[in-house]
Amino acid sequence: MILRPVGDRTGWWVEGAVALFLIAFPPLLALAGVGTDLGTRIVILGLFGLGVDLLFGYTGLLSFGQAAFYGTGGFVAANLLISHAVPNTLGALAVGTLVAAALGALVGSLALRQVGIYFAMLTLAFGQLFYFLENSPLRAFTGSENGLPGVPKPALGIGAWSIDCSSSIGTYAFVATLYFIGFFIARRIVRSPFGAILRAIRENPERATASGHLIARYKLVVFTVAAAYGGLAGGLLGVFQGYMPPEAFSIDQSGEIIVMTVIGGPGTLIGPLVGAAVWTFLRQALQNVDAIAGIWKLILGLVFVLLVTGFRNGLVGGFVAFARRLRPAR
Amino acid sequence: MTIVFGLLGFVNFAHGGLFTVGAYAGWLAYTRFDSFVLGIVAAIVVTFVLGIVVERLLIRLYYDRPPEDQILVTFGLGIVLVESVRALFTGQTQLVATPSWAAGALQIADFIYPQYRIDVVGIVALTLLAVWLLIFKTRLGLIVRAGIDDALIVEMLGIDIGRAFMLVFALGAAVAGLAGFVDAPILALNPDVGTSVLVQSFVVIVIGGVGSFGGAIVGGLIAGEIVSLTSVFAPDWAQVALYLAMAVVLIVRPQGLLGVVGRA
């Protein structure tokens, strides 16, 4: 028998809070004197991080190759849009996401043969495989070091009915809506019996196996889902920037998304968005101070090491623990 | 040089950073004192000391935590090391001159090798021998191997396992540092040099077999051959072929060519 997962009593307020935050984010940014585009970037990274979080935060699988899916989804969608093979933005994003997911299933079926550090090493190596694949043999398709310029702005339309999302705020609304859907689905996943088994795999894989679950299959599914999130986020990046950068495939990209997720809080779905915001703001703020402009990444690296050592569950996890202490358990 | 990495068995994500630190420390001493040997000494000493400091301050806290946490902290450490180097020496690529005694080229049969590469092979062989002797022929090596198998029993026997692990970590750091410096005249020097080497060493380990001494050597040789052979016929595919080979090994023989089942 599969037990009802814990945490059901939280109801819908988390979804509501996230929706409110996404709506309030652009005005808040404007108050801080920052443009909406920064917010769009953060939300895209937050979406990418949702997949990493499902994979690492919930299932305990640490992958250093997620950029492969981010890049794949991005370049597939960008190509379809540039060549007008699929004129509809949503259609191109969907194809990019599916291709990334298929690739995720393939890579996952190989990398998941190992656990722990060897799994991490394999994902890293596969990430590099796709980086080099993108860089030379596929350069006609990806523009090699130059990336792909000229990705059209989001155009949604069915027949005569269409919405214009080409303005800065329009793009944000488009990205934020997709993020919300992604968040909603991720939350369904972690609160489902499937999500409970993912956590069981993280906590005690032997016991999960002994309970009769084919954990290899669960891992493969969650790896594929994470790849799909990466693919969708990558597609959005190209659409948002009007340009698909080759760095999307880079090993640094894989590392950064992990750092963001861990800073924000692995195992809390809001964590990646918070981490992406912290990372992006700090980067922006530190780069504006001349004396430390060159070492912003060093500072973030130190913050990261301290957080991993002191706050296992990142900023959000630390905050939740703090709030619980203020309000004793019933 | 990736072979040395493979031998350490406990390769971690900070080794890329240590590789970079060693390269810069050695380069600094080499250019300052005009002595390649002093460069080697500096690379080893700096990374060894750094290894001890880092192990005592940070890594020690992680022995009881899940492997994922250890990966994360070493990964973060790698960022900190690389970025520190970048802050101190700027991100510019430096060319490191080959020492004069190793300039020239050597002709063996029909092939011409740069003299320096031959010397590097010699240094690698020496390092391999030293590490092998240390791990399999000394008391320290015995303690470490026992400690990996069952730390509790070793401690019950009254042995300070913490110090043994510290030494091994520092030695691993020193080997990475040495590798970084010796490779510098071949690769040229910039802060990101460690990362690419790190990834290649992972590939070597996967191909050769996890925790296998001979496997690391065979894996390194095979990896080198694949890259240079494909470079001749299809340069675009050289790097891709390397990773494809890794995938094939993984499908056909998940434990690696010379790996032993159950020692992952």
Order of secondary-structure elements of chain B: HHHHEEHHHHHHH
Question: Helix count of chain B, per DSSP?
Answer: 11
Kindly report the spatial arrangement of strands forming the biggest sheet of chain B.
Answer: 1-2
**What percentage of amino acids of chain A are in beta strands?**
under 5%
Order of strands, main sheet of chain A, comes to 1-4
How does this model look, in words?
The complex is a heterodimer of chains A (330) and B (264). With 330 residues, chain A is mostly helical. Chain A has one domain. Chain A has 14 helices and four strands. Chain A has helices at 13-31, 36-58, 67-82, 89-111, 116-135, 139-142, 168-191, 193-203, 205-210, 215-241, 251-264, 271-288, 296-310, 314-326, and strands spanning 148-149, 155-158, 161-164, 243-244. In chain A, the strands form two sheets. Chain A has a two-stranded antiparallel ribbon with strand order 1-4. A two-stranded antiparallel sheet of chain A has the order 2-3. In chain A, a hairpin with a 2-residue loop joins strand 2 and strand 3 (161-164). Chain B is mainly alpha-helical and 264 residues long. Chain B has a domain at 2-98 and 108-191. Chain B contains eleven helices and two strands. Chain B has helices at 2-8, 15-33, 36-57, 67-89, 115-137, 139-149, 151-156, 161-187, 193-208, 213-233, 238-252; strands at residues 105-108, 111-114. In chain B, strands 1-2 form a two-stranded antiparallel ribbon. In chain B, a hairpin with a 2-residue loop joins strand 1 and strand 2 (111-114). In chain B, helix 5 runs antiparallel to helix 8. Chain B is globular and about 60 Å long. The model of chain B has no long low-confidence stretch (mean pLDDT 75). Classes of the chains: A mainly alpha (330), B mainly alpha (264). The interface between A and B is large, with 40 and 42 residues.
